[in-house]
Amino acid sequence: MRFTDLPDLALRSYGGSVIAANDESFAEKESLIKPGPSRFQPHTFGNKGQVYDGWETRRRREPGHDWAIVRLGMPGVIRGVVIDTAWFKGNYPPYASVEACRADGYPSAAELAGAEWTEIVPKSPLKGDSEHEFDVAAERCFTHVRLNMFPDGGIARLRVHGEVVPDPGLLTGLPLDLAALENGARVTGCSDMFYSAPSNMLAPGLARHQAEGWETGRRRDEGNDWVTVRLAGRGVVHVVELDTANLLFNAPGWASVSGFDGEGEPGDGDWFEVLPRTRLQPDTRHRFRLDGDSRPVRQARLDVYPDGGMARLRLYGSLTPDGEAAVAERWNRLR
Fold it and tell me: Which domain of life is it from (predicted)?
């Protein structure tokens, strides 16, 4: 798996925020973490010059460099960073670096000045109108990143891909969505993601349009499409939610959910039924309460028949005692 297949921890729609920048004279800092690619319309001028969909600072006439601080929407282990200078051709920075820190609570930019910052991307050369991918090896949980550009210029997007590490204080002893990205769930396998990625199904909030869910190509064989998810922790599922919002003519006809209570790679015979094959309707939020004593699960599998899209998958339940212990151990180990 490439690091770009992991969720963008800084994304605005995942709760990320650009909390400070030393300068944003030409284009606002908030654009750095907007969903989707940067847009550009030539010969579109405002009071400050050509309008750019990105962050752009003034031309420096003194020593130093420009910076912006981003609070991650979902704290986690950063596996890679993308610095995108799309559309910035004569005004991009020649170099950039990225630092990260872990700070509890909701500190201000001034309070973060005294934090322990770790360099995760060293000062590296950039090109104009290009995406630059940087692997990150720091095995720690971070809550904030600081983007530095040398000495000035414009950057369209900053993507911070990684694995979510949830705060156990927000999960222990409480009902939760075991399949939520923000609670630490992640996609581990998928049959097809021709139109959009399956991790979209686990994102916070409601999907605003088709691209914010998972959608496959049209199958021309006798099989069906599927996604596997490692849950936030070992837990018991009480309610399954399958949301086909915005999918008017390309929702699956049916779907089922299976579970696996193991750490390794499950075989075909290891899955047990959580929700039997059930008929679905387009553009509908389906909720199913599970009757009886449910078995604990560590991994879940969503099968759609035969193909189509799913806006959101929610598996509401609670962690088992050993599931809670594992979440707490990981949080403390990655400090």
Answer: Bacteria
- Preceding omega of 151 cis (within 30 degrees of 0): yes
- Residue 226: what pLDDT? 98
Q: What is the 3-state secondary structure (H, E, C) of 160-228?
A: EEEEECCCHHHCCCCCEECCCHHHCCEEEEECCCCCECHHHHHCCCCCCCHHHCEECCCCCCCCCEEEE
Domains of the chain, first to last: 3-164 (2.60.120.260), 168-323 (2.60.120.260)
- DSSP category for residue 57: P
pTM of the prediction? 0.92
Q: Which residues pair with 77 in a beta bridge?
A: 141, 163
Q: What is the largest CA-CA distance in the chain?
A: 70
Contact in structure between 70 and 100 (CB atoms under 8 Å): no
